[in-house]
């Protein structure tokens, strides 16, 4: 290529620029990989900062409480005693009440959590942030705020109304505003694990109006408080429980046990690991590619280096020359990566901000993150260029003027085993070339294996989510819907439910909030008591095996058993948090490795007997005739005894739209990065092989081999490396899966370690596709191979 | 060997012009030439006289800018890339100044590479014995001396029993004694198989081996000498 003279530059700089232009393919590939690494570093690191900052400022500005407690009913004056507890800074009593809602346009009954706000002043804690509309008037008792996610899911606007059954009374409520709250960043109903924004929402109502509607005048059933900076949280929780025991406390807890907070902080934590891993892989690949390309460049420029040295250029000048060549593609990548990372970061931030509905969400440029990202990129570049720089520096001027000796081949172990006799000469060329540079071959294989592994682990996560969905909604929850009673009721209520339109089966259920204690470990959880004859709700482990509820004692999910450090045969102290505060010592008779949650199960009769509350249930599971669904829903909306209903098909939808959706997005991103790695490795591998062996390939052409035969030889070497890489990738991918399965194991859910063969097949297709693309990119150079020139010149 | 008769190559009005940026280089100008079956021809001339260009065109590695070249009844000028590949595969053996062996293959395997795609090849080991390397079959190029590498290259060229051996400065990088061994190997192929040998050199001493010596200057044929008395390689001195 003819380059214009660049008058103001020094000759060595001009040489560098022209070399870069001549090698633009490989250097561009390196720049792309480096840019991906740096951009991803910036994106993920600023995302993490963004999430933490948004959450912190949200919590601070809207005064998210530190401790929470729910009780049956406590007289308001108790609050004065509570405020005197050492360590409590601000305490605010509330009325919180769940009720069935009739939402316009929604056939199924929805569940609303009514939360009181002071009538005459703004709330002190957990302050709702008004997104649209206005605050409810102190004088109109039917005005409410609804949570934004619920409003959006049901297209509710200020000015519209919805119906609710409050304390047995049907009331029409008027929406005047839409709000969000730090307390409900993640809105979860009861013991559900996934948000269903369409059928569960938070509604804020003036406390005076809510108290009257629910019969809670002069009393509260919920309290939140902030702590002084040096307060002891356990001491405060203990004091709260002691004070509220006569009023049926369900057990005070801190932020760490707060459902919404736990979900969000889990998400932030998971971001931490991702922040580091993928950028490190990408920058590692950058270093490797630079090593290969620059080492080759130094080899082809031996003569030039020797001449420069002969003319008096110092080793330092020559070393610097090649070092800058290593840094330039990374700098070029960084120039693209900084705005790209910012852009991806703000896109992702906007997505998270929408998902979590942060009040103020702006991703500001964190220059420390940018400096860190670019610095890591340059470090990788310097590391990758080091070997080439060293070779250039160490080359004695005289030796550089002589043509290089033939590459030192000797028999490899394949020859000694006689295996290579079975190969064609072309096959032997491939095998010996791979064996001659074991480190480079190993690095190529590693690069491909990592790319393969990234695809495997991403597809695995998606498949695992689907597996969880299938187990949870096909094997565990087989009821069409479940209903919860406001207060525990007698089993006679089942008969009433059985006679509702379209109901085919009814099974009893009792859910008791409890605190489990074993040794020094305590845990808030719930016991789900089921009938041993029941078919609608089952306990199913990771492998899909169903477990029966034990007739005696309790069954714990493995996660809960691990937390409590118990095994079957041990017993745990169970403190009921249903207001009765009973204490029972129950034997653990079984464990089951469930995918979701940390729950305990027991036989309903056994629990009724143990709690001396015969025939008591708190809810029921229903199987219903889909043809009578609408009538059943309409009836359920009017039953005052019910505090909530959840519908399985709706839960599935909610699951898919929230969890599965966000996973799908990260899938496509991760696959894009895997492709960049694969293309970078394969394309540069081909280019360097072509450059090293152009002479050899030209000889073959001269000897009468066709272009196709020669290309096959060139491509099969890279093909073998790619194949070995994919083979290793099966192991690497599985390793990633094991790691992810272990690392994402939280109390809320566990990812089963089931990697299906389809996952590997998909990864195979992706990597093969990327390799073919690289081959096509390098094809131009193969075609341009000049037979005569390659043979005439030395190197 | 009796003076040859049948024409192997016939070139008429052969011209080759290279464009190097703004400069036009006329490498060959209107050359008429015949090479005969079974003869040894030495192309002699200073660098830049056009001898390599001529050899490359005869070998199907390069295309002329004008004129005709025929190999027997094959038209080399109108041939497609794949026809030229087949022509090289079936009829031509090349020997270069730099041996261009595949470093990843042993001597034997380098020869096998060619015998594999040839129709009536010699046994690879036999070809190597022919050039005096019967005891170096399993050595890699890096384990052979320059002369040995060049003889492997000759064995590789001879093994497929080509009709013509085109040799571009085959002794250029070798000392006298080694150079003689290499030339002996070439003459032996000519003697044993009747292969036409066209050899480029700027070393006038080597010309004494040839049936005919063609001198080139500035892309034109300056003279053609027919030798009635040829020397053997051993008799040469330079």
Describe this structure in words.
The complex is a heterodimer of chains A (795) and B (238). Chain A is an alpha+beta fold. Among the domains of chain A are: 60-262, no CATH class; 437-475 and 649-795, no CATH class; 503-624, no CATH class. In chain A, 53% of the residues lie in helices and 20% in strands. Chain A has 22 helices and 22 strands. In chain A, a hairpin with a 2-residue loop joins strand 7 and strand 8. The longest helix of chain A has 55 residues, at 648-702. Chain B is α/β, with parallel strands linked by helices and 238 residues long. Chain B has a single domain (7-100, 161-235), classed as P-loop containing nucleotide triphosphate hydrolases (Rossmann fold). Chain B has helices at 51-58, 81-91, 107-115, 124-130, 146-158, 176-193, and strands at residues 7-20, 23-36, 40-44, 66-71, 74-75, 92-95, 164-168, 196-201, 212-217, 220-226. In chain B, a hairpin with a 2-residue loop joins strand 9 and strand 10 (220-226). The mean pLDDT of chain B is 88. The interface between A and B is large, with 34 and 37 residues.
SSE sequence of chain B, one letter per element: EEEHEEHEHHHEHEEE
Q: Which band does the percent of strand residues of chain B land in?
A: 25-35%
CATH topology of chain B: Rossmann fold
Number of strands of chain B: 10
Low-confidence stretches of chain B: none
Q: Count helical runs of chain A.
A: 22
In the CATH hierarchy, what is the class of chain B? Answer: Alpha Beta
| Apparent shape of chain A | elongated
β-strand amount of chain A? 15-25%
Task: Give the termini separation of chain A.
Answer: 19 Å
Structural class of chain A: alpha+beta
Strands of the largest sheet of chain B, in order across it? Answer: 6-7-8-3-9-10
Instruction: Using a beta-carbon cutoff below 8 angstroms, give the protein chain pair with the largest interface and the number of residues from each chain.
Output: A-B, 34 and 37 residues
Number of helices, counting only DSSP H or I runs of 4 residues or more of chain B: 6
The average pLDDT of chain A is 87
> Which percent bin holds the helix content of chain A?
40-55%
Distance between the termini of chain B: 25 Å
CATH-defined architecture of chain B: 3-Layer(aba) Sandwich
Helix content of chain B: 25-40%
What Rg of chain A is obtained from the alpha carbons, in whole angstroms?
34 Å
Across the major sheet of chain A, the strand order is 3-4-9-6-8-7
